[in-house]
Amino acid sequence: MTPEHADIVVVGAGPAGLAAAASLAGRGMHRILVVDRDDEAGGLPRFCHHPGFGWEYTHRLESGPGLVRRLLRALDPGIITIAIRTSALAVRPGPEIDIVGIECGHVRVRPRVVVLATGIRERPRSARLVPGRRPAEGILTTGQLQQMVARGVPVKGRRAVVVGTEHVAFSILLTARHAGLEIMAMVGAEDRVMSYAGAGLAARFLMGVPIHLSSKIEDIHGSERVESVTLCGPAGTRTIPCDTVIFSGDFIPDAALLPGSGIDIARVTAGPSVDQFGRTSAVGVFAAGNLLRAVETSGLAAIEGARVGTNVAAYLEGMLGWPRDAASIRVGDGLSYVVPQYWAPSAGLGGAVQALPVSLRALADIRRARLSLSEDGQAIWTGHPTKTLRHRRLALPAAALDRLRGGDIALRIDPA
Length: 416
Known about the structure:
Blueprint: E1 8-11, H1 15-26, E2 32-35, E3 51-53, H2 55-58, E4 62-63, H3 64-73, E5 80-83, E6 86-92, E7 96-101, E8 105-109, E9 113-116, E10 120-122, E11 139-141, H4 142-150, E12 159-163, H5 167-178, E13 182-187, H6 197-206, E14 211-212, E15 216-221, E16 228-233, E17 236-241, E18 244-247, E19 251-253, E20 285-287, H7 298-316, E21 327-331, E22 335-339, E23 342-343, E24 359-362, E25 366-375, E26 378-382, E27 386-388, H8 398-401, E28 409-415
Parallel strand pairs: 1-2, 1-9, 2-5, 9-20, 11-18, 12-13, 12-18, 13-14, 21-28
Antiparallel strand pairs: 3-4, 6-7, 7-8, 10-19, 15-16, 16-17, 21-23, 22-24, 25-26, 25-27, 25-28
Helix pairs in contact: 1-3, 1-7, 4-5
């Protein structure tokens, strides 16, 4: 199939994009084109060889490449065309999409639907406003290191400092060890390890990695290559000799296609605003995966992709229209954001559509907190007291959301 004949274009061949394509094919859709600028399909997981990918979607403890292989095996090449080394340049109302690739050249495609699943990217050191010198070598992000190791590119360094303590920071410890790097320290600006507490204990006591919390890099030394870093923290300043600094996390949606597309961009997440079915503000354009909010697991991204695939099929079959009266979901003090940002009436749709899992984040750690949902000032649902951790996903039962009718919707969190 040539791009011009595609009915559906999926942008991004990571877990969300691949799961969306499989779901569409399973619903009887044809002429599905998946484009990805990389040299292979799979997204970031294909560079991560440790287990833990896709659990929510597959219920298997698989490595990143293992998850990718499973997702690719589910695709029928007679229905789905994957165009690698192919970039989407622009999305415009219509929908209309410009793509360029080594096989197709520069093509303008007018499909019936576009699914955006471009995922995430890491902020480089320059965008994190980290002071210090700019050595020619020795500054990496986790993605760079993972790709180097996966592609067999030698890593020149020997002693590394990892900046960050979220989930991916601890996975990078294993990658760095595999690359022959000794981890001199982990550095986190927060007052606790942002991943699971067990990860911090394993790093400290099983791997012997010092973790400096409430600390920031004050200076990076070296000209040709990193020579050391100076930290500023509760114990004052200290200098740690190293030849490599690995900046971890700080992911943001890869949303370069949004300007000019007619799609509303959410202020907090910097991704597209969507309703519960993944519909954006541009007719015919859906979105799924970490493009929506850059912090969920590959398994949840795949679930979102699969559900959006179901909803696209319902749209193409005439069962799901485009929202005209979707209600905005407001978040109160103490909450960072919610995805989806809008809720549209869904009476009569039944099993033809599937709502996205709700992604909700608190701004602070609260020992006992109570989450509540209201509509037009009336309580719809109140959760049990629970401990909340900032930037950790909060659960909101689907049964509570099913009661919504499109009024003034608000979420809030209060100390219990």
